[in-house]
Amino acid sequence: MEEKLNSFFQPQRQSKTGIVLLFLYNVGMVIKNLWVFVILFFVRKDKIESWIIVLAIIAGLLILIVSAVLQYYHFKYYIDEENEEFVIHEGIINTSVTKIKKENIQEVNISQPFVHRFFNIYKLEIDTPGSSEKEVKISALTKQNAIDLKKYLLTEVKVENSVHEGAEIAENQDVNTLRSIKISTFSILKYGITANYVRSFFALVSLMIYGFSELTNLLKKAKLDTQLDYDTVESQFLAFSIPVIFGIVLVVIILGILINTVRTLIKFFNFKISENNQSFSFEYGLFNTRNSIVNKSKVQVITETQNWIQKQMNISFVKFLQIGKNEEEEKNVAAVPGINNDEKRKLISTIWKENPVFENNLTPNFRLVIVNNFQFIIIPLLLFFIIEKDLLINYWFLAVIYIVLAELFILIAFRNLKLFYNEKFIRLKSGIWDIDTRTFEVEKLQTVKISQYFWQRKTNLGSITFYTSAGRFKMVALNFKKLKKLLNYCIYKIETSKK
């Protein structure tokens, strides 16, 4: 154990099995980028001499093997103790050196993808603020090396060049484990069934369109008669009655939900949360086992997402946005699916030492509904009428359905839009079906801004924007006098927290 801890201060390579892994990666990249030509190669192989095929395969494999060996020997990593930096050397022809300050390391994630399991090795990813991609990836580490390296990089205490002290730090992190939570498979299943309906539908439709297009192109390259006419397909589809079309859409939605459920189960299978004094560790995955860290002190925003069905089932989806993370970057956001209310309260209270309770709230003025009616109903229909007048008249019933649904969504969104606040926290609530509540500490805000258009002065309305290290959040059509008071209080708390 001591030798492994000390070895990080000297340049070292990955596990030797990494050569095989790099070779497989190279093969995968070739297939991914040239898969069409590979298929055509086998389709037309009767016109090519067999010895040429064998020679081409042998040459390709030799090139990939040599490339994997060179990649392995040119990849080195170590800890620069004097400058407190993690250093990576890599590259064959164009060599590069990456240096990351220890204090700038945001996350260190350990994962074991499906292929890694065959070789009993792990992948380690290091992330820093301000980057949407992982800064550094080490693809082949033993489990113990990966765990030891993660402890070194994430510890808040300066690492001294002492084996005994390094071992003591690692030991303390294990001893200080307070509790653990396991999300049951049934809870993950319930979440998978009740989440991402719209996304699943459009993802499946996009996949079908993409597959249809690629199949057509492949058949054309193979010089085969495709017999696929888009105009014919479109006319035949429109010839169906409305109930049949709705039936087809319903089947696609059900298939999308099933696919999303299976994907969710595979991704979040056996979800475990382990708590230390300074952080949480999330471990999950069926084929691709992941291990990510959430540092309590770096959590900027906690987002809770729950729809009506999930509320009845007592489950929700919680995301922890840390410094430099954006809510839209799903891959880089730590999240817990299918967590129940008791588990959620325990998790939040260990970060903030309490569960926020709000007595004050602001709601938008009803004028926001009028503005949204112009934006989402009147203007789109007016433009459609100008461009395709006859089509709008012939299918007027579809326009009526659109108006009713759009108006319903606007009213629901207006009803759910609220701003809550107390002395320590601010919470924004929004959504139509999936209701999002984003909560953040006042003292951790970077700044707060309020604004008011000239036509809002008579109605005393305005908007407020909260800027955090994990993004900005805005709410409109609120009482401007109350916003001024909230702004002054937030600025006061931000300034006093800095002092």
Automatic annotation (TrEMBL):
* The YdbS-like PH domain, residue ranges: 72-153, 415-490
Residue ranges spanning the membrane: these are 20-42, 48-70, 188-212, 237-259, 368-387, 393-414
Instruction: Name the UniProt key words of this record, in alphabetical order.
Output: Membrane, Transmembrane, Transmembrane helix
Q: Does the keyword Cell inner membrane apply?
A: no
User: What is the name of the protein in this document?
Assistant: PH domain-containing protein
Record the organism.
Chryseobacterium turcicum
